[in-house]
Amino acid sequence: MFFILSKILEFVVTPVHLAIFAGTLGVALGLTRHKKTGRALAAVAIALLLLIGFSPLPDLLALPLEERFAPPPADAPAPDGIIVLGGSVDEKMSAIHDSVAMNEAAERLTAPIALKRLYPAARLVFTGGSGALAGSTHTEAEAVARFWREAGLDRGDVIYEDKSRNTYENAVATRDLVKPQAGERWLLVTSAMHMPRSVGIFRRAGFAVIPYPVDYRATDALRNWSAPRHATINFLLAEAALHEWIGLAAYRLTGKTDALFPAP
Asked: How much is the average pLDDT of 232-261?
């Protein structure tokens, strides 16, 4: 039930969706005796689209998430294992074109190639089934296995978990699969924006991990920000950041993380 509700909520509260819904309702009201309310609602919708698409707001939402956990120092001890979270493959497009179609989080899959070369003795685990609301006959794990085999990373020693549908299930399934022992060091590879929620969930599941953030997308809006070439870039960033902030609150309220905003 939690998985289904989270998918529905994600669709409804996406900033661009909210603006579209509000604008559509405003236009519809403009055709009735509530013209004044309709015009106001349409104006709010346009203002919201402009604010999200052409202001530093998306970066301001994303930066605190991405800066929460720093990568481990270069001289850190070698890890016993490396966990890679799903979320970087478009299952549907991969199946349609018989290929590995990656999204903007592709660095989750490329970073482990270098990590495994640096730490050849570390166990490598990918966790990710299908995040489709209606389910799917294809899983991320299938596509990732294909990519890593073609890249020469998987030589039969990679562990794939293909049943989990969200980060909470990633943590529980991976914990049960690898059974981490006291004193072991496990790197957790996921997008920097996703790292606070991921770390909180793994901690709650009793699995201590070392953050290895990748896929940085935000800039310092006060010093390095510049207007995007395309508003869609900001739309996607705002959507991802809001998804994480709402996810942090929802997972904390349902007891799936150890803190509202997990810290190092």
From this structure: 94
